[in-house]
Amino acid sequence: xxxESIKPPHRGLKKGLYVIPTLFTAANVAMGYLAVLSSIRxxxxxxxxxxxxxxxxxxxxxxxxxxxxxxxxxxxxxRATRTATEIGVQFDSLADVLTFGIAPTALIxxxxxxxxxxxxxxxxxxxxxxxxxFLMCGAFRLARFNLQASRPAKLAEGxxxxxxxxFVGLPIPPAGGLLAALVHFAPMPLSFYxxxxxxxxxxxxxxxVVVLAILMVSTIRYTSMxxxxxxxxxxxxxxxxxxxxxxxxxxxxxxxxxxxxxxxxSHGIVWWIFxxxxxxxxxxxxxxx
Length: 289
Hints:
- The protein has helices spanning 2-6, 11-17, 19-45, 50-81, 86-116, 122-150, 172-185, 195-217, 233-251, 253-288, and strands at 166-168, 221-223.
- It is mostly helical.
- 33% of the residues are buried.
């Protein structure tokens, strides 16, 4: 009886809470895996049955979108229940490499570049290189984030200070999510639009992939949305924004997902330009005064 009284209460319940974030991370991995399979199946029928291929590509894009939801929830649950662990952080990063690195590159290749360019041509080889650089930049972005989050003291020399309210560089989930949202917006293979237009679209898409890759390894700050900053009215407006976004996604997912992803990707650039301009104007005003 004495040993039972010493045993800490709710030990089993607390131990079980550690499994919940891992389950959401596993769901994240599952969505990435299904997205890759759907991309392969879509490419296999893109030349003979574009409509069926579009359904596969659309499924892959939606799977990546669901993965963003799972990736957001697992972190918030871990922080809310105080069950964040080192292995959980590493598992989450490995899941993100698959779901938001490999899966979007496979989807974009199968949907856009592979049906458009003949193998071993300049356009095809360039597209493969661009997608590889996107994947490498995303992996580097995750490695830098993990290092900053776990060992900030060792990054004293030349490192950006860790800020819980902002990410340094574009996170890989919205980068991969924007590519998936584009496919969801127009799931038909790019080759369906004709030879010349598909080539123009493909090169424009390469430019977007390059921009996303550069943003991921940049030092531009993006809001993390982890600390809304205050309660009361701000929290109320945040709930309204989330509810409105959810309704827009439910009824107009093709437009809403592209708009939300593009807005998040661009807001960091806008704030970076605003800070740069404000920083240059401030010394000029001081000199004038």
